[in-house]
Every structure is written in structure tokens, then in C-alpha cells.
Amino acid sequence: MTVRVRIAPSPTGNLHIGTARTALFNWLYARRHGGTFILRIEDTDRERSREEYVQNILTGLQWLGLNFDEGPFFQTQRLSQYQAAVETLLARGLAYLCYCSEAELEALRQSQRAQKLAPRYDNRHRHLTPEQRAAYEAEGRRPVVRFRIEEPREVVWHDLVRGEIRWQTQDLGGDMVIARIEADGAIGLPLYNFAVVVDDLEMGITQVVRGEDHIANTAKQILLYEAFGATPPAFGHLPLILNAQGAKISKRDGATSVDEFRQMGFLPQAFTNYMVLLGWSPPDGQELFAIEQAAQQFDFDRVNKAGARFDWDKLDWINGQYLRVLPPADLLAAILPFWQAAGLADDDGPWLLDLVTLLGPGLTRLTAAVAAVYFADTVTFEDEALAIARDHRHLLADFAQVLAAANPQRVEDADALLKSFAKEQGVKKGALMRPLRCGLMGSLHGPDLLQSLMLLHRKGKAIPRLQGIPA
Ligand code: GLU
Predict the structure, then answer these.
(1) What would the mean pLDDT of 228-252 be, rounded to a whole number?
(2) Residues recognised as catalytic
(3) From the CA of 194, how far away is ligand 1's center (Å)?
(4) Containing structural domain, residue 233
(5) Does residue 96 contact residue 128 with C-beta atoms inside 8 Å?
């Protein structure tokens, strides 16, 4: 059977790392089996769904390189299919209209709470007589459609990740609402579990792979497949992504949306590499790989059941590994948006390439490459660096003169110039380096000094900086 898998985000927020990881695992599985990866936007919650989030999901998936083969399909455009499916269940007597008011349901919940029982609908409108129904209608009550959940019963499936899962229908909260009825009597947009089943059936989904927070939904969904006389797809539930304390990762842990990770300076190929490791490990134990490589080996039997701990150090390490080997032109393309966002501009291509070549090896995140000091006209000094530069301002001004006269064009020439200048001054070259760095860069630490000097000199910035140390 051809593999058909999907990612089904709700556009009620930006693309979340949990959704992105689920998308990635589905994508890996589809690519492994030459299958189809489908995007479905679950936008039935009209109040919370927004177009901007749809866009964020689309651009996020694209940035990650998770190309889909079909879709995006939108649930709000599929009302007629859901209506027909509701009609089918009503006609088969597997669903019914429930007229309970919100106040009645709340009273029910309260009495259950008082008896320390789990809240559940008690199926009270399952067997209304036509007269009772007519009476409720006459009252002007608007019903919902409920699906009958037979109890007691055990729902069992073999989960692709977690093995056998057993769920008791008594624990599903009673007959479940699958759709509301509109004021004009029409069947309205369905609820999550129902729409998902109708869609997954119609889209021929073969494996439903999602976060483990959906396990209870799976039990309900399997019952719906049965009601439609259909064989359910296989199900797989991925471990949650946890923070360092073992709780579900949240905004407080630094970042949760894919867009935030992009803005923090992670490369998409490093970020997807890291996400693969959030729950899966390749048989060969490798830690650095392109997702296309991972796809050749991916299977659910190596997905962990236990939660996946999010590890910033590891993500940084992986990102650094990718940055180190990125060709300068690619590195430049990756850094440019960060420079632009910081208002740093220069259209001197060769100079920019040399600058990223200098910065690349020391980077863990692209944000660290903003390095405004190379673009600025004046230096922003750290206190200690300013003190050192001040103490050597005459020496630095002298060196500026030598630099102006010799006008070196290559790092080797600058090196030779510095050596001869040191000799003239009767100091060691090493002793010159610190004040020079402080005067040029305003800081005691940073990328290679001679290369930095040459980059600044090429832009005419080195001499005025060395001459202009504040007194
Ligand atoms: N819309 C659901 C979510 O975002 C999809 C769950 C599923 O994959 O069935 O969690």
C-alpha cells in the first residue's frame, strides 16, 4: 500500500516546534517509502484561526524544507463532506440530536464533581421520543449531534511507536459531540475528532502520526471509523518535547515557534537535523546528517516512547557544525537578512564574502555574525578596551601613519608591516596586538586581528579609528 501521511496543524498560532517535529517525522516516513505527504489546515475553530498563522505555517514548513505533495486542504472548505458524513451516522442511528442546554450540562458536571466522579455526559438524550424532541424544538433549543459511544468496551490498537494501547470506552466522557446545528437547522462545522476522521478517510491516510497528547482522541476516532464501516489507518504517537525540568516545553523555555528559532540564528538544515534527534536516532548513531539522509533509514521502531528533552547546547553545537562547513556564499546568503534587520548595509560583494569567511568558524548562531563593528564608522568601546587603547593612543596613531604610507593589500603585507613597526618601536609584535585590537575593535576579544584590520583598512576605516582614539 502506498504510504499517505499528513500534517494537520490548526492555524491558531505560529508553527510550533512540536508540530514541526511531527511534520518532519511524517515527511521522513513518506520520503522513506516513496509516499505522499499531505498538508491539511484544521481551521474549524473560526474564532481562534487566523490567516496570518496559515501563512506562518506555510513559510515555516518551506523554511524547514518540508515540502508537501498535496494540499494545503482547508477544513472550512469541506463543510458539505462533513454534513454528508453526519447525515450518514444519523441515518444509521449511530448519532443523535442532543438538546441539553449549557446550564443542564453544567449542573450535571457539578453533581459529578460533588460525587468525585470524572465529568462525563450521561447520554440522557440518546433515546428521546419524537414528542420530547418536538417539545425541545418548540422551546427553541438548538441541538448538537452526538455520536454513540458504547460502553463498556475496550478499544485496542497497535501503535507504531508505543506498541499495544488499550483504552476503555467508559473513559471517553460519554457520547461525544461531533457537530452543532446552526440556527437555520443546517449541520454546522464539525468538531475536531469527527472532521479528522472524515478527512483522513477521504484523503486515504495510511498512517496517522501525531503527538501523544492525541491518544485519547485516537480511541474515539477508531470508533468513528467503525461507524463508517471503514478500516482505521495505523496510528503512531510521538513523545512530547520536554524542557530541562521534564515539563512540556513552553514559551518560558526561550522559544517554541519555528520562526523564533529562525530569528535566533539557527540554520534550517541544522534545526531539522536537531529535530530528527528529538525522539529518533539513526541506527548508525550519527548525529550530523541531512534530513534526506535520515529519510533513508527512518522508521517508527526507533522512535522513543519517553519524552524528548530539548537541549539548547546540543542545538547550538549542531548549528555551529553546519556553519563551520557552509560555503562562504551560502553563509553570506544566510547572514544577509540578519545584517539587513540590524540596518547594516554594504554592497561590496568580495568584502562581504571575506567578512563572513572570517566570522564563520567562530559562530554558533547567525545572530553572532551581526558584528556591527565592521560596518560602523566609529568604534563602540568596552571599558577595559578603551582604557588600553587610551594608554597607547600615540603608538596607535604612529601605526596609522605607517599603515597609510605602506597601504598593505594583503594580510601577509599587514603582518610584515606590523613586525617592522614593532621592531622600530622596540617592542614585541605580540605586545602591539592587544592595543591594536582595542583601538580598532573596541574589544579585547574577537576574530583574527590581522584579517579584521585588513577588512577595515579596505573600507578606509582602520586609519581614522587608530588616529581617533578618545583622549
Ligand atoms: N489539528 C490537530 C493539532 O494541531 C491535528 C491532530 C492530528 O494530527 O490529528 O493538534
Answers:
(1) 95
(2) 251
(3) 12
(4) 4-70+194-241
(5) yes
